[in-house]
TrEMBL record:
EC number: 3.4.21.1
Name of protein: chymotrypsin
Keyword Secreted: yes
Record organism: Dipodomys ordii (Ord's kangaroo rat)
Residue ranges of every copy of the Peptidase S1 domain listed in the record: 66-292
Source taxon at top rank: Eukaryota
GO molecular function: serine-type endopeptidase activity
Leader peptide range in chain numbering: 1-18
Subcellular location: Secreted, Extracellular space
Length: 294
């Protein structure tokens, strides 16, 4: 049996579906140091000017084992956000899509998020790059549901805008998935558990994983996979508890674009099974409407 993890809540999905393990392919090591803004035209992205281009380039390796992750270069994922519940406890991740807005998973709102922290590498860091911001409004997708999972997306409007720096900036959102077909190697980042039944990672982790087609993902999860979801992983890397709400990002032409939001997966954080993400393109109309009206 496979279980469903959503934040800290558990639910049974039903019978598991057999399938083949995903495999990492392509270069085993790459450095995305070509950050030429002129190459933005190579892919279709939605976002503020200059989005998706870190001032500090990430360094990645094709990893066999975030689960199976490695420490990120501090500041290289400048859109990462830590959501904090009472007690200053990290409960979920999110991403900056502008100075005023954070994108995350709807199920992360099951607990009262008091504030967000940006510019962070170590969860316990209170250094000069860190900004602690309060939330003015929370917008959960009107059709969001935990059981069964669907429309797992929420927006947080900040009371005070984030100050963009070399370690704080926005990600782009995908508007054409043709840019990133199944098999594309993408990246997840987070401070969640490194293994099942462990604690949060104090430092930001990153892991490389391939996008998985809907039919292949349904071999594991059956009809639980719907059109508003996208799958990735099954290659020995994947998200785990408290990575929820974080980004699945893909790079093209030096620009990082978010294609998914960490939503749910194997109860045991089994990295041989694809994880499931909220599909960005399925929810762009709602995101745009929410931003325009608020």
């Amino acid at each position: 049996m496979l279980g469903l993890w959503l934040l800290g809540c558990w639910a049974v999905l039903g019978a598991a579906f057999a399938g083949q393990e995903g495999e990492l392919s392509g270069a085993q090591e790459s450095e995305f140091s070509d950050q030429d803004p002129a190459r933005l035209t190579l892919s279709c992205t939605c976002g503020i000017p200059g989005c998706g281009i870190p001032a500090i380039p990430p360094k990645l390796s094709g990893l066999p084992r975030v689960i199976g992750g490695e420490d990120a270069v501090p500041g290289s994922w400048p859109w990462m956000v830590s959501l904090r519940i009472p007690g200053d406890i990290h409960s979920c991740a999110g991403v900056l899509i502008s100075e005023e807005w954070v994108l995350t998973a709807a199920h992360c709102m099951l607990e009262p998020v008091e504030k967000v922290v940006v510019g962070l590498f170590n969860l316990n860091d209170n250094g000069k790059n860190v900004q602690v911001l309060t939330i003015a409004q929370v917008f959960v997708h009107p059709n969001a549901s935990v059981i069964p999972v669907h429309d797992d997306i929420a927006l947080l409007k900040l009371a005070t805008p984030a100050r963009f720096t070399d370690t704080v900036s926005a990600v782009c959102l995908v508007c054409d998935e043709a840019d990133f077909p199944p098999g594309t190697l993408c990246v997840i980042t987070g401070w969640g558990h490194r293994q099942h039944n462990t604690e949060n990672s104090p430092t930001l982790q990153q892991a490389v994983l391939p996008l998985v087609s809907t039919p292949d993902c349904q071999k594991y999860w059956g009809a639980n996979i719907t059109d508003d979801m996208i799958c990735a992983g099954g290659n020995g890397t994947g998200p785990c508890m408290n990575d929820s709400g974080g980004p699945l990002v893909c790079e093209k032409g030096g620009v990082w674009t978010q294609v998914g939001i960490v939503s749910w997966g194997s109860r045991e954080c089994d990295a041989s099974i694809p994880a499931v993400f909220t599909r960005i393109t399925a929810h762009l109309p709602w995101v745009k409407q929410t931003l325009e009206e608020n």
